[in-house]
Write a structure and sequence with these properties.
The complex is a heterodimer of chains A (about 160) and B (about 270). Chain A is mainly alpha-helical and about 160 residues long. Chain A contains 8 helices and no strands. Classes of the chains: A mainly alpha (about 160), B alpha+beta (about 270). At the A-B interface, helix 1, helix 2, helix 3 and helix 5 of A face helix 1 and helix 2 of B.
């Protein structure tokens, strides 16, 4: 499978945009930054011509590349800005805002697993395939990430 | 807190309502640009007029060795109006190879290469930035049966490959390679340039000339020791580039491969 034509572009954007934007927002606070990241990922797909075995392989590539790029952008931004997650977490009045800040404050390895499980509804095995991790590792990260979120929000995650 | 609350928080993020339309348009524009670039890469920039080809045929007919008439790498650079690069090919840093291989009906000759900074009057652009640290290779194609070429052969691709790295991650497309070409005296000449390959010099670095598109494992299988070969049935040649291992930069190589986002493809 490769990105070869205008119809293929439409399919990719329609299929993956929303998922990748949300995923980028597990690392990035600004939605505009997430949009930039996702566009860069799609452009990279165009220029790098990766060859995918199937749709799952394609999805895994997009997810991992988005996470890498979002992490890179966050690191670059952190050179110039102090981390805001903790401040936002303490001051945000709305639960949604506090939850987003808490997810972004998680270490990268926990944030992706938490998001793919809680938002996208993937099983441990499916997340393992998408991220190239053993299912047991995914389970450990999910449990630890959930515990950190619980501590941050002082609430029970079911 | 439950899954519903989690989803609600992420659904509330205010993304641009026109993101999909903008992105689709951006990608389609890039696709069109890419098609133009690939067309340029395959077809080349210069074609000799038929009348000059006829003159070349006449010259060959007087039993002068065609090999003796072939252009040197420096002459190819001069022909492409790049005297700075021509000087680089004449310098001690250049490697003259003159290695030949058979690809289908053609005899391919890898004539020489040179690597370094600011070796060309025209630095290349990569991901929107000018890149002056490049590797340049000159190769030529001639019909093995001696018939002079009248135009550039179709369907051939050219790409560096590096042992130990996936062929989808390190190739002409990810390295931002470009290629200029022309036909003179019945021979097709190519000036290929890419990001400086010396960073990979502690690996075996190949230069592939083959029938096909973007390198993939079906065309270029990789052995357990990382060495790359040409699949059976694929028309092509795989040269090994004699790069100076002391100039390897493993950190830069790893950073490059990581930057492609393809390092995990197995």
């Amino acid at each position: 499978m490769a990105l070869t034509g205008a119809e293929e572009v439409s399919r990719l954007v329609e299929t993956y945009s929303s998922m990748l934007l949300r995923l980028a927002c597990t690392r990035l606070e600004n939605p505009a930054d997430a949009e930039d990241v996702v566009q860069e990922v799609f452009l990279k797909l165009l220029t790098a011509h990766p060859s995918f075995r199937d749709a799952e392989h394609e999805k895994a590539w997009l997810i991992r590349t988005t996470l890498h790029r979002a992490a890179d952008l966050r690191k670059a931004a952190s050179r110039w800005n102090v981390p805001l997650e903790e401040a936002l977490l303490a001051s945000a009045p709305e639960l949604e805002d506090r939850l987003l800040a808490a997810v972004r404050a998680l270490p990268e390895k926990y944030g992706a697993v938490i998001h793919l499980h809680y938002y996208e509804g993937y099983s441990l095995k499916e997340i393992g395939k998408l991220l190239g991790l053993p299912a047991a590792t995914v389970g450990t990260r999910l449990a630890r990430g959930r515990e950190r979120l619980r501590q941050s929000l002082k609430e029970e995650i079911e | 807190m439950n899954r519903e609350a989690y989803r609600k928080a992420f659904d509330a993020i205010p993304f641009s309502p026109d993101f999909r339309d903008r992105t689709t348009e951006l990608l389609r524009d890039r696709l069109r640009e890419q098609e133009k670039e690939e067309h340029s890469m395959y077809i080349g920039k210069t074609k000799k007029l038929a009348v000059l080809i006829a003159a070349a045929i006449a010259l060959l007919a007087v039993s002068v060795s065609a090999v003796m008439l072939w252009l040197t790498p420096a002459q190819v650079a001069e022909r492409l109006e790049d005297p700075v690069l021509a000087a680089a090919f004449d310098s001690e840093d250049a490697v003259l190879l003159e290695e030949t291989a058979q690809v289908g009906d053609y005899t391919v000759t890898l004539a020489g290469l040179v690597s370094g900074k600011d070796l060309s009057r025209a630095p290349a652009e990569y991901n929107g930035q000018l890149v002056s640290d490049r590797t340049y290779a000159v190769f030529s194609l001639a019909r093995t049966d001696g018939e002079p070429l009248e135009e550039l052969p179709d369907g051939l691709s050219y790409s560096p490959l590096v042992s130990g790295y996936h062929v989808s991650a390190v190739n002409a497309w990810t390295l931002g390679a470009t290629c200029q070409s022309f036909v003179q005296d019945g021979v097709a000449y190519y000036l290929f340039d890419t990001q400086n390959l010396e960073m990979f010099a502690d690996h075996t670095v190949y230069f592939a000339i083959y029938e096909g598109g973007v390198p993939n494992p079906a065309t270029f299988p990789t052995a357990e020791d990382g060495s790359i070969s040409l699949a059976e049935g694929v028309q092509g040649a795989l040269f090994t580039l004699p790069l100076d291992a002391s100039k390897a930069d493993p950190a830069a190589a790893e950073a490059f491969v990581e930057g492609t986002g393809l390092e995990f493809i197995g």
